[in-house]
Write a structure and sequence with these properties.
Elements lengths: L16 H29 L13 H26 L3 H30 L1 E6 L4 E9 L11 E9 L11 H5 L3 E6 L3 E6 L6 H30 L1 H6 L1 H30 L2
Antiparallel strand pairs: 1-2, 1-5, 2-3, 3-4
Helix pairs in contact: 1-5, 1-7, 2-3, 2-7, 3-5, 5-7
Length: about 270
């Protein structure tokens, strides 16, 4: 039994089945990300004065990733256009570019995550804070047993609020140096992972979910790129429709990042 409307459009919607399905799916995705963006706004508005981070993210890397996704949107469109004019070779080239751009995006995002996970804030018994990237731990370092030392490349501040706005003149001019702290002087310590504070929690949630969408879209695009030749030979029109559907998903993912970048990196 042949499934109807896989190529031709439905008379009731003017869309073929897969295109109708992807639009319904994207509507649910809008609600998902819309809820998370709303949560971000509420968390930020409700934050204690002076305790919402600014300048914690690398704007240069964020800008590069924005350009990468913008270029991938173009190459995805060109791949679909190549299918429309029945040029499978150009389709392979453009979709290969899309895959490479996506993997580069994920690589940069992984570097940013790693940077946060090796960045530590240590509250000392005297009320000050040591903050910076982990350099090394002594072999016998054990916070629970209060043995050993830990060394950060960073600074020591008197008030945690001094760590919140890295764009402030005082933070910009602060000298970073190696700071060694004994376990006996540590009251608490933790990295800048999701548990660090409200900002890192919503940052990892939003960008992590987006990265999963990028990864999923890349897998689908790679599948069509690597194994789509058989369908192209037997049913090129249906294959072209599948490329269009995957492209619509990819454009949505690109659009989400266009909102994530200014909200997280520039405010």
């Amino acid at each position: 039994m042949e499934i109807p409307y896989t190529i031709e459009t439905r008379p009731d919607t003017g869309l073929y089945n897969a295109k109708l399905g992807i639009w319904l799916f994207l509507a649910s995705e809008v609600m998902l990300f819309g809820g998370l963006f709303s949560a971000y706004v509420l968390l930020r508005v409700g934050a204690e004065h002076g305790m919402w981070p600014h300048g914690w993210l690398n704007v240069t890397l964020g800008t590069v990733n924005t350009l990468l996704l913008a270029l991938s949107a173009i190459t995805t469109l060109l791949a679909w256009a190549a299918c429309k004019v029945r040029d499978f070779t150009k389709f392979k080239i453009f979709h290969a570019c899309t895959i490479l751009l996506a993997l580069t995006f994920l690589g940069i995002k992984s570097y940013e995550y790693h940077d946060k996970l090796i960045h530590y804030e240590i509250k000392l018994n005297n009320g000050t804070f040591a903050d910076g990237h982990m350099v090394e731990e002594s072999k016998d370092f054990d916070l629970a047993k209060k043995t050993g030392t830990v060394t950060l490349h960073g600074r020591v501040v008197a008030d945690e609020k001094e760590l919140m706005d890295l764009r402030a003149p005082a933070a910009q001019s602060a000298k970073l140096d190696e700071v060694t702290v004994a376990a006996t002087d540590i009251k608490s310590m933790g990295n800048y992972g999701p548990r660090h504070n409200t900002f890192t929690a919503i940052y990892f949630t939003l960008t992590g979910l987006h990265a999963l969408h990028i990864l999923g879209g890349t897998i689908v695009i790679f599948y069509f790129w690597a194994f789509g030749g058989a369908m192209w030979k037997t049913d090129p029109e249906r294959f072209t429709n599948r490329i269009e559907v995957s492209g619509l998903f990819w454009h949505f993912v690109d659009l989400v990042w266009i909102f994530l970048f200014p909200v997280l990196y520039l405010t």
